[in-house]
Amino acid sequence: MRTLKIYQVDSFTAEKFKGNPAGVVMNVDGLTDLEMLNIARELNNSETAFILSPDGTDHEVKIRYFTPQTEVPVCGHATIAAHYVRAREKNLDSSTVIHKIGIGILPVEIIKEGNDYSVIMTQGRIEFNPPLAKQERGNTVKALGLKEDELDPRCPIQIVSTGHSKVIIGVKTRSKLDTLSPDMLALTEISKAINCNGYFVFTMDSEEKGVLTHGRMFAPAIGVNEDPVTGNANGPLGAYLVKHGLAEYNGSGFSFKGEQGNAIGRSGIVDVTVSLRNGKPEQVKIGGRAVIVFKTKFQL
């Protein structure tokens, strides 16, 4: 029998019971895939991060991510949670940590702010798929409960990835975004056809100072009907805004704040930074705050 240390962390917020909850499990070396999946299922967060020792000299820590149904290659809010816990446990100073995750070996910036921390993760390679074909687009719009005249005409519906792809859908108004009621079974079936499990609906109809976008993310195909605040959706959105000329930027960078989760009472803020080269998005970083809700020990 072994004892694991488990944290429940709310990411992209400094306020408990807001943002996106993630499980963080420490000292998991030697656990089987099934044991990790069972723990993730028991915690029942959209994702749980498992912190492992490095398996090479090119990184300091290895992290794996599980939903209650399956392993995923990367998760934004669980990364913020995992590194926040690790920084607190190790009393780290501001520093850069190199981690190994499902999409590769990447840096994470730890920023000490008094007695607390914020975390910034570099996301994976930016990839744009062509806009969805007519039938797939129509099926997606219908499954989301949208009408054509409610869509933002500036925004093609397409899959974008910075490591874990999402379908990006723009709508005109915040009121429509907040009242969406998608057909989850239909979205699950569409996911099989387009090989993408997440649908990120956003609007630039924002009246909040300093907030550029509001969004909601649905991923029923992996057991997450609605994810409160999604790093791997807001990150690709940043690249998308640049590509389609929806963002104003100067020089080689563009930064904004994206709000998500308000419609389900778990509002959080994702800080997104897009590096550009020759006017094209080259790299995305996302960051935010976190807060520990509870920690416990678990015998397995």
TrEMBL record:
GO terms for molecular function: isomerase activity. It comes from the Bacteria. The keyword Isomerase applies. NCBIfam families: PhzF_family, PRK10281.1. GO terms for cellular component: cytoplasm. SUPFAM superfamilies: Diaminopimelate epimerase-like. Belongs to the PhzF family. The active site is at residue 47. This is PhzF family isomerase. Keywords: Isomerase.
